[in-house]
Amino acid sequence: MVRVRLTRKLADQLNGVDVSAVNVGDHIVVANAVAAMLIREGWAELVDEGVSSTSAATAPRSASS
């Protein structure tokens, strides 16, 4: 699991990942493969674990589950 920060959101589904409950700037914990995809596609950036967050840390559900 990896913590990322959502950097942009144009829809409630990002490549099959449900982010309807997440806002831009929120930190979320997702599986490594999901984090890699979100980062690669420009939707998120990796969060430095040494930085604390007041944002939600919930893992969005994949639309395929």
Structure description:
With 65 residues, this protein is an alpha+beta fold. The chain has one domain (1-65). The chain has one helix and five strands; from the N terminus they run ββββαβ. A hairpin with a 2-residue loop joins strand 2 and strand 3 (17-18).
Span from first to last CA?
17 Å
Radius of gyration: 10 Å
Number of helices: 1
What percent of the residues sit in helical stretches (DSSP H or I)? 10-25%
Low-confidence stretches: 53-57
Number of strands: 5
How many strands, which pairing sense, and closed or not: the largest β-sheet? 3 strands, antiparallel
General form = globular
The topology string of helices and strands comes to EEEEHE
Mean pLDDT across every amino acid position: 83
Assembly state of the chains shown: single chain
Q: Which secondary-structure class do the elements indicate?
A: alpha+beta
β-strand amount: 15-25%
Strand order in the sheet with the most strands: 4-1-5
Number of structurally distinct domains = 1
Give a summary of the structure in a few sentences.
The chain is 14% helix and 25% strand. The protein has one helix at 32-40; strands spanning 2-6, 13-14, 17-18, 27-30, 44-46.
